[in-house]
Each structure stands twice: as structure tokens, then as C-alpha cells.
Amino acid sequence: MKLVRASAFAGVSLLSLTAVPAMAQSERAPATPIESVAAGDTAEDEQLRTAQEIVVQANIGYRNRSEAAEPVLVYDTDYFQRFEPLTIGDALKRVPSVTFLSDVLESDGARLRGLDPGYTQILVNGERVPGANVDRSFFLDRIPAELVDRVEIVRANSARRTGDAVAGTLNIVLRDAFKFDGGYARVGGLLFDDGKVKPNVGAVFGSPVGPGRLLIGGNIQGRYNPKQKSSLRFSDSPENNPSFRTEDFDNREDQSDTRDGTDYNVNASYGLDLGATRAELSGFYVHTDRTETERSFEYDDPTARTGPVRTPVNGNLLTDNANVNSINQDSYSLAAKLAQDWSAGTTTARFGAARFQQDSRETEFEIDFDRAPPRFTGDLTLTDIDDREFSLGLDHKLPIGGGVNVVFGGYAQDKRRDTDIATDRNRFNLAAATRVYDQFTQSPDAFVTPFDPLLAVAGGLNRIDENRRDLFALVEGRTGALRWEAGVRRESTDVKIVDLDSGQRFDNDFDLWLPSASMKFDLTGRDRLTASVARTNRRPNFNFITPALLEAELGDNDLLGNPLLKPETAWGVDAGYERRIGRTGVAGVNVFYRRVKNLVEVANTGNEGSEGEGTFVLQPQNSGSGKAWGIEFDLSASLAAIGLSDTGIFGNLSLLDSSIRDFAGKRRFNGQSKYVYNFGFIQNLRRLDAAFGATFRKQGPAVDRIVGEEIRTTYGADLEVFVEKRLFEKLTIRAVGSNLLNGKKKEVFNKFTTIEDQANRDFDEYELEAEEAGPVFQLVARYAF
Predict the structure, then answer these.
(1) β-strands 47-50, 180-191: how paired?
(2) Which UniProt keywords apply (predicted)?
(3) Nearest to residue 174, comparing CAs of 271, 76, 83, 67?
(4) Which residues are within 8 A (CB) of 732 and not within 5 positions of it... i.e. 6 or more apart?
(5) What are the Cα distances from residue 573, in Å, to 519, 520, 663, 670?
(6) pLDDT at 601 (0 to 100)
(7) Neighbours of 269 (CB within 10 A)
(8) Residue 766 carries which DSSP code?
(9) HEC string of 78-98?
(10) Do 782 and 245 touch, CB atoms closer than 8 A?
């Protein structure tokens, strides 16, 4: 029924928008932005764009080819805009090899090649940015898509960039003053499945100001994600008992999970082009207010949910849980760049300052009716994260003749991360107060009492200082049809870790040599070969290097941090073929291979755990190796060759695999989907000054295995459609329907108490969980001025 409503919505929107004529597209003028350290800035279409050209898209946007030696895929905002993605995470659902293990309607931790987000380097304007996650990854739902000029997928690393890019690099290039002229306003709203409406408004303006060019933009975006979850739990699994559904049922949980918030953001840049001297100052700021509300009921029956419940229990309700997490996040980044041409080449200096702050207040109140008298438990947890980074880079490009350049330079970064997690718990028995309790009209928070002063959790009050000093040198050139680059980077890092609760302090230093080489060879004017080899690394998770003992963290086993962990290192190879199709289209195929050493895996120290006999103290250690490989296909082209020049098609398919050995034997890298694909089309209706299109996406199952738990995750398919009408040469009205197939995420959990139980398949719990969200409809108007 919801799919029928979605189809009707698209059809009515198209008919209502096709009654008025027209539009035109402005000419482009050349621009000379400062060359970024990020590969891909030398895309074939590096030109100033007008606001009218962005708002009124007469032509279909296709994937670009980069002229840099490295293998880079470039996707301009034209490629994404018509589907009106809310965040850059939403936009990346349409590019090759990016998967997510997020909740339905969430696209946060990008997994390039299906690998953990910590294996992917995230850059904004070529610079690193801090985030809240312990694996050092940056959630891409922190960046509204409206700020973005283009996305670059850098498949293999270069000595120009920091080497934290085992899977590759995603460089998010924001709109800047050198490439945008004029202004536009955007007004829209989102309608969700439960009837909630959220606003989405913003504006961007770029113009000459004084001797340079200024760009400023802002956006206010409502965020909302209502989901319904259901879990069935058993004391055994089908592995041991084919009839487990009837014999081993334990409990059922029904949960509503709603994410409700607003993002406020602004970005600005000012650029000067004085011929031999070019300078740019840029920055962005994002503030998020977000509330995550969960209400969960556990029942002792697979289907029934009787109430009210009396004490002693004569209904089905086992527990009633109310969980609310209020989150405030602030991200900002400032960057200054100066380039100077000399007779002996070009010198470029860069300064960056970035900060991420998160304050959250989480309460969880629960009544346990599966005891007499019922017990009330209340938990309060306050989490403060403050992550700051300052960086300075200097490099010089020296031409030495014959189309060959020598590039050398240095990079310094000082990072400090402060974490403060404090908590308190109230627990008491309830007697007369719950003799009659109706879970449909009452809530556990009715029994809340004041909390005592909060105490820091074990390992929750710490400081990490990480100072790195890098040097690099490379040689690059172009000889006829061949572009090439070869270089090496030396990364020296000094890490200081302080557990402020215990006073423990640890120092850890390491040096890495990271060579790399890339080439592109034009077989013809349309056909191109690419090849790269590079050594990269991944630094340990913050929670793994904090010197704290977390009791019963992994099942009933304790987790002891290891501040002396070294980074994982990887050798990687990429090889590909691209073919230009017509004037704008590209088709490509790429194979990749990664060999990872010094893997960080949780190991058994042999010491008895806090829960007694049969449990152990576990600790992350550098041990073993793994490998990942795959093949990636992508296509982005018009059908002009068969007479359909106003029809654009796109698609990509990635087949992914890996191998690793852990405490239980052989497995894939945790969370790596076996495949991901998406395909779609855009159809221009020039006589009607309108367009419509659709995209379909599916990713394969993924399996995670850690001590005490195994998870298998599958996702349903995702369908999006849009229709648009262009009016008066400066106005576009666009309607978008997302998640039209009612996206569903399913997870199977195998849970064990000890390592021995996991090896013997002696289950503590077997759980089937599913969550679902309904379609989202968006109506947006953009006006150029």
C-alpha cells in the first residue's frame, strides 16, 4: 500500500509540475583555484559555475575522470543533486564500493570496499577532520550535502597525503569562492511515514568582493528517523536444535526508536588570485541538536502483549524500558592556504584547525516485572568528548624539465582528545506502586528519584595526545600518453595516553615508511589503463589504547586496554581500465588487493576475569594478518548513441571478499558485505522543462565476529525517485521519494558467555532482530538570484 502511495505521489507531482515553460544554462568561465593536496582537483571540468546553472540543471550530471596520476573517481554535485540527499552519507549511496551498517534511513559510517570505517580516510577539502568515533572515523551524516561541490574517491594513496587509508580516501570538497558565482535559496520540507514534517532551508552566495571572491552559505535541516524494531530471543539456536522456535523461546522485545533533531550549518571561503600569488581562507561549522528516544517492552510470549500487568505477574509483560539520549554536537574546521609561484617552482603553505565536541545526557529507566516485587532501575550517563586538531603543511613543486616535477614537503599535526564519561545508577524494589501498571498509558520514568553525584566509569576519564611529524618526496611527470607518480612518506608519531582516574600514563612512539606509485596510460583518446601500489596504515582505536580494565565488557570476559599497540600496516594494489563514452560518459572496471599486517585482534591473556572461573581478561594485541580483494564496475553515460541523448543511466557493482584468522578460526573482515550495487536513470523532458529519475540500491549480507558475540546483518533494497519542473529560467521545484520499499534491516545474534562456550557452540542467547522504517517524501524549491 505504501509503495502505491509513493507511485501516486510521483505521478501527481510530475503532472502538477509540467504546466509552465522554461530555462537556460549559462556559460562557464575558467577559474584558477589553489591546487589542493587532495587528488582529483585536476578534474577535466575545473571551471567557475553560476548559481543559475546549479539550480536549473538542463543537462544530466555524470561521473568525471581525474587527470591526476592516482586512480580517482570524481562525482560533482550535479550527479547527486536531483535526488536531494540530506547528507553526504546519503549521497555516497550512489557511488561504487561504499557500504553502511547503519540503522535504516541512516548513512553515517562509510565503509569503503566494505571494510570498517576506520580503514577509510575522510578528508574535507583535502584536510583531516576529527570525529566522535573511537575508531577515528568521521560520520558523514555530519556534513549536509548542500555544502558539497564534489566527492572524490581516491582508490590508492599518494605520498602527498597522510597514509591512514587502507581501504582508500573519501575527499569531500566543499563549495568555494573560486568555483561559484551568484546565489540561490533553497526551501523545502520532508514528510515522514508517521505524518511528521521537517523543514529544510538554506542559501548560498558567491561574488567578487574587493580584490578577491567571497562565498558564504548556510542551511537549517530537520532530521527525523522513526523506526520500529522487534526481537525474538531463544536460549539455543538452529545449529543445535532445529525445533528451537517452540522449545527454546525465551522472550520477545518490541521497540520504537525515533531520532529527532536539527542541523545548523554554515560555510564560507574567500579567495585571492593575484597571478603569481594565490590565497584562500575557508571554514565550515555544523551544530546538531538530536534526541534519540527508545521505548521497549519485553514479553514472555511470541505474539501476545496483554496489560495491565499485576503483581504477582499475570500478564505477558516482563520489562518496560524507556531510554532517552540528548546529544549536542559541534564541528568546525578552518583552513588557510597560500601558493606562490617562483622562478624555481611553486611553494604552497597550509594551516588547519578543526574541533569536534559532543555532549550527551542519556537516561535509561526500566521496570523488571519478572521478579517479586518488581525492581526499578534508573541509569544516568553523561558523555563529553572534545577532539581538537591543528595542522601545518608546506610543500614545493620544482619543475626539472621534460614535463617532470619534484615535489617535497612536510606536515605537522597536534591532536588532543579528552573523554569524560560519568554515570550513576538507582535501583530499588517496587511494591504497591505497580500493583496495577498499564504499559500503554504509563512509563518507568514515573518512578525516577534524584541521582547521586556521578562517578567516572572505568577508563572513561582520559586524555590522548597524538603528535605527528611527516616528511614526503615524490617525482611526477607526463610523457605523451603516460602520467606517473612515485614517492615515499615518512610518518613519525608520538602518542601520550593518560588515564585521569587512575593517574596511569603511557608513551608510545612509532615511525612508518610509506612508499607509493601510480600511473595512467591513455591507450587511445577514449581508453585508459590505471595502476597503483601503496603502503598504508590504520592507527588503533582510542578505546583499545586507553589503559583501563573494563569488567564484563565482552560477554562475561574483561577487556584490558593496551596503550602500546602499534598501527596496522597494509600493502595494496589497484589496477583498472576506463573508457570514455561519448562526450560525458565513463565506464570502468578496477581490481584491488590489500595485505594487512599487525592486525589488532582481541587475545586471551590467560588471567581469570572478574566473573570468576571460566572467564578471562582479554586484551587487544597486534597479531596475525589478513587480506581483502575485490572487483569494481561502474558506468555513467547517456544513451545518445542510440538516439536518446536526454536519457542518462548509471550503475555500479562491487564484489568484495577477504580472509582473516582470529581466536575462532578463519573469517572475513568484520562487517564486510559480499557485494553492493546500485543502478538508475535520469530522463530529461526538454519540451516540458522537466525531468524524472530513479535509483535502486542493494548491499549483501555482512558478518561480524568478536569474543562473546557473532552478528549477521542483511538489508532490504532501497528505491528512490524524483520528478522536477524548471520554471522561469531561475526556479526548480523537485519532489523526491526515498525508502519507497520500506527499508528493513535484519540481524541474527549468537551470544556466548565465555570463549570456551563460543568454541563449543554453547549459546547464552540466540536473537533475531528486525527494524523497519517507512518512506520519506521531500518537496524542494530552488531559486537562483
Answers:
(1) parallel
(2) Cell outer membrane, Membrane, Signal, TonB box
(3) 76
(4) 55, 56, 57, 724, 725, 726, 781, 782
(5) 12, 14, 28, 21
(6) 85
(7) 27
(8) E
(9) HHHHCCCCCEHHHHHHHCCCE
(10) no
C-alpha cell at position 96:
561504487
Q: Which CATH superfamily is domain 2-784 in?
A: TonB-dependent receptor, beta-barrel domain (2.40.170.20)
Sorted by sequence, the CB contacts under 8 Å of residue 57 that are 6+ apart come out as 78, 81, 82, 691, 732
Amino acid type, 80: F
Spatial CA neighbour of 219 closest among 177, 178, 187: 187
Mean pLDDT in consecutive groups of 10 residues from the start of the chain, 785 residues:
39 35 32 42 56 77 88 92 90 92 85 93 87 78 85 94 94 86 93 94 94 94 93 91 78 94 94 94 93 94 68 71 96 94 95 94 93 90 94 96 95 95 92 76 90 87 94 95 97 93 88 97 95 96 83 82 92 97 93 96 85 85 93 95 92 97 90 96 94 96 91 95 92 96 94 89 93 95 93
Q: Rounded to 5 degrees, what are φ and ψ at 758?
A: -65, -40
Collapsing DSSP to helix, strand or coil, 434 comes out as helix
According to the model, what pLDDT value does residue 308 have? 46
Alpha helices in 242-334 (DSSP H): 244-247
pLDDT at res. 352: 94
Q: Report the candidate in 535, 529, 560 with the shortest Cα–Cα distance to residue 547.
A: 560
- The C-alpha atoms of residue 669 and residue 660 are separated, in whole angstroms, by 6
Beta bridge partners of 462: 419, 499
In angstroms, rounded to a whole number, what is the distance separating the alpha carbons of residues 174 and 742?
32
Q: Which residues are registered as beta bridge partners of 333?
A: 284, 354
Q: Which residues pair with 391 in a beta bridge?
A: 352, 413
pTM of the predicted protein model: 0.88
3-state helix/strand/coil string of 459-484: EEEEEEEEEEEEEEEEEEEEECCEEE
